[in-house]
Write a structure and sequence with these properties.
alpha/beta; globular; 26% helix
Length: 150
């Protein structure tokens, strides 16, 4: 399916509207624990691939050796991932930033969702897996996340 076809099918899709926008004053960056949240559909090597419409998430430990980009969408361009995983999952750059004192620390826990979603309401992510992923990050004392939407 071409990008033009997908855009025409989704052109009338309404976005979700939040009634309130919460705000907190963040810690300074050099005191913050940072995690990655991506929609690249990453899995630890050897884990099952994503099923179409899977709105779950995968916990990626900071020391995971081998990751697989298991994104379901056939339209996803994997070239950047093949050349440098940091394009999708910038773990090495965050390690460098932690070593240089730019960020306070690198989280133990990172999260990957699968971005190609059939159900555009994302109800399961909003009400179930999203809060569960936030709980896992909160348990790791994460102060902020670097989003890599793919």
């Amino acid at each position: 399916m071409s990008d033009k076809q997908v855009r025409s099918m989704l052109s009338d899709l309404d976005g979700f509207v939040f009634d309130k926008v919460p705000w907190t004053t963040p810690k300074p960056l050099n005191e913050s624990r940072v995690a990655i949240v991506t929609t690249a559909g990453l899995r630890i090597e050897g884990s099952a691939d994503w099923d179409p419409g899977d709105q779950g998430f995968t916990i990626i430990p900071h020391d995971a050796e081998e990751l697989t980009l298991a994104h379901f969408s056939p339209n996803f361009d994997r070239t950047g991932w093949v050349l440098d995983k940091n394009v999708v999952f910038p773990i090495d750059r965050l390690r460098e930033m932690a070593d240089e004192g730019i960020i306070g620390s690198l989280a133990e826990t990172h999260v990957s969702f699968m971005g190609a979603q059939i159900d555009h309401t994302l109800e399961t992510i909003r009400l179930d897996s999203g809060p569960a992923a936030a709980k896992a990050l909160h348990a790791d004392d994460v102060d902020l996340v670097l989003l890599t939407p793919i």
